[in-house]
């Protein structure tokens, strides 16, 4: 039986400077922005798909709303929250798979999860100046909420996918640089 040496006894699993080196802040922020745009685009597509129901809710035409669906108003709005959470979970899984494929630490994916979930919980991307201008721009091409939100949702979704594609390219470059 060999006696353990000083080196094997006190060997830390991972030191803090080593973990900080594994962080790629630019990649984390880009992945967060991509997920925020994708989730916002999907929410707009949900509104577009249910445009007549949202029109009835916003106009407080309860008879029209009840004739279009058997859901109550709160149940309908809870379905939108479920839709958002499902998009968020799928997006985080995709980002996690991308980071795993290119050998980035799980810590990057966890930070993306925390930041994206925190930002989406505030609802900051569903209000504000960009949302107002996008609604105005899309309203020029459509009469009702459905078509305006379809156009806006596709634009925002395309921007999110483009940003996510950029992070994949950055992952590939980082991965090939680490091998050299």
Write up this protein.
By secondary structure, the protein is an all-alpha fold. The chain is built from 9 helices and no strands. It has helices spanning 6-9, 16-22, 25-49, 51-58, 62-68, 73-101, 106-122, 129-139, 145-179. Helix 4 packs across helix 9 (145-179) and helix 6 runs antiparallel to helix 7. The longest helix has 35 residues, at 145-179. It is elongated and about 80 Å long.
Structural class: mainly alpha
Return the average pLDDT rounded to an integer.
76
Q: In percent, how much strand structure appears in the residues? A: under 5%
Runs in which pLDDT lies below 50 for 5 or more consecutive residues are none
Q: Which sequence of SSEs, written as H and E, runs from N to C?
A: HHHHHHHHH
Helix content percent band: over 70%
Looking at the chains present, what oligomeric state does this protein adopt?
single chain
Pick out its properties.
180 residues, mainly alpha, 9 helices, 79% helix, elongated
Write the SSE topology.
Elements: H1 6-9, H2 16-22, H3 25-49, H4 51-58, H5 62-68, H6 73-101, H7 106-122, H8 129-139, H9 145-179
Helix pairs in contact: 3-6, 3-7, 3-9, 4-5, 4-9, 6-7, 8-9
Entry summary:
With 180 residues, the chain is mainly α.
């Amino acid at each position: 039986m060999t006696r353990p040496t000083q080196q094997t006894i006190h060997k830390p699993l991972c030191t803090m400077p080593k973990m900080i080196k594994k962080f790629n802040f630019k990649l984390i922020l880009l992945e967060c922005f991509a997920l925020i745009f994708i989730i916002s685009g999907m929410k707009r597509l949900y509104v577009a798909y249910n445009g007549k129901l949202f029109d009835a809710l916003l106009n407080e035409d309860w008879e029209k709303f009840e004739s279009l669906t058997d859901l109550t108003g709160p149940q309908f709005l809870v379905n939108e929250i479920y839709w958002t959470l499902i998009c968020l979970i799928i997006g985080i899984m995709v980002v996690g798979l991308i980071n795993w494929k290119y050998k980035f630490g799980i810590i990057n994916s966890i930070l993306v999860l925390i930041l994206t979930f925190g930002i989406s919980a505030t609802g900051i991307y569903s209000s504000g100046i960009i949302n107002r201008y996008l609604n105005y721009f899309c309203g020029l091409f459509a009469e009702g909420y459905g078509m305006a939100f379809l156009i806006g949702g596709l634009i925002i979704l395309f921007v999110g996918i483009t940003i996510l594609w950029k992070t994949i390219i950055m992952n590939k470059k980082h991965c090939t640089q680490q091998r050299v």
